[in-house]
Amino acid sequence: MNPEYVFFSGKGGVGKTSMACMAAVHYADSGRKTLIVTTDPASNLADVFEQPIGHHVTPITGVPNLWAMEIDADEATREYKERSLAPMRGLFDEEMLKVVEEQLSGPCTEEMAAFDKFTDFMEDDNWDVIVFDTAPTGHTLRLLQLPVEWSKHIKESAEGSGQTCMGPVALIQDSKQKYDDAVARLREASRTQFIFVMQPEQTSLEETSRSIAELAALGISTSSIIVNELIPEAETVNPFFRKRREMQEAYLEQARQLYAGIPVQTMELLDSEIKGVTMFRSVAPLLFPEGSRND
User: Fold this and answer.
1) pLDDT in tens, 175-201
2) Nearest of 193, 197, 276 to residue 229 by alpha carbon
3) What share of the chain is helix, strand, coil (3-state, %, to 5)?
4) What value does the mean pLDDT take over residues 118-134?
5) Which of 54, 258, 272, 279 has the fewest CB atoms within 10 Å, i.e. is most exposed?
6) Which domains are present in the chain?
7) Environment class of 162 (CB within 10 Å of its CB; exposed 0-12, middle 13-18, buried 19+)
8) Residue 40 confidence (pLDDT) above 70
9) pTM for the whole thing?
10) Handedness of CA 136, 137, 142, 144 (dihedral sign)
11) Could you give the residue ranges of the DSSP H alpha helices within the chain?
């Protein structure tokens, strides 16, 4: 299967950014023009690739088919406001523009701007595959729930006051179809893969279970799960590591039972950080063995 969109999600600190970067390098090295985008406001994408990235599409050094971008929430909001106001300039006086601008400063404008930027990439045909390194699970699910709420809110406002917390309905009705289309793509399993990264621990197991259920409620299926940082079998000669590994194996078995029908992959804990293109390439075969369903 050759997905167009691949999402990596999970609770903070489980290693989803490393897995997402590893996947992005793998796709790029496979000859696919690849973009990796992070929606995490606390992103460390630049750190793991060991080069500056920021709020613009940046080529990754040493990987000819790979580009990256870190979405800056403040910058995305500024761009969204300007794009919304631009058609009105020259048509309305400054007083009217000021009223609209105030309406666009509502509490949900930043959320809408983030999703708008997100959907811009999903509409961009320049890429063979886009890897999304998402914010911790709760933020990601909130982002994916927004278009459903907006569709209802826009419809009700259009029939009533004509105002929304995102500004006048007239300004955003065109965006409604764009967001609906994005959600439809997310629900197509042939085009979109949603991968949860977790650790073999109780809290991670519980959060992943909740998240899979919430995602399913949105009509989006989970493609696979990566259980990260298993103690290597070779290290279990040490009693401490043997006990940790036994605990981890119990949670791994629980995961396989809970998520029956969803492929569960494992990644062992390494003796060094997973960062830098050279490291991603050396470790990628562990995640993408030859003949893998992700190839």
Assistant:
1) 677 777 888 888 999 999 999 999 999
2) 197
3) 50, 15, 35
4) 89
5) 272
6) 5-287 (3.40.50.300)
7) exposed
8) yes
9) 0.84
10) positive
11) 16-29, 45-49, 73-85, 94-103, 109-122, 137-159, 169-186, 202-217, 239-258, 277-287
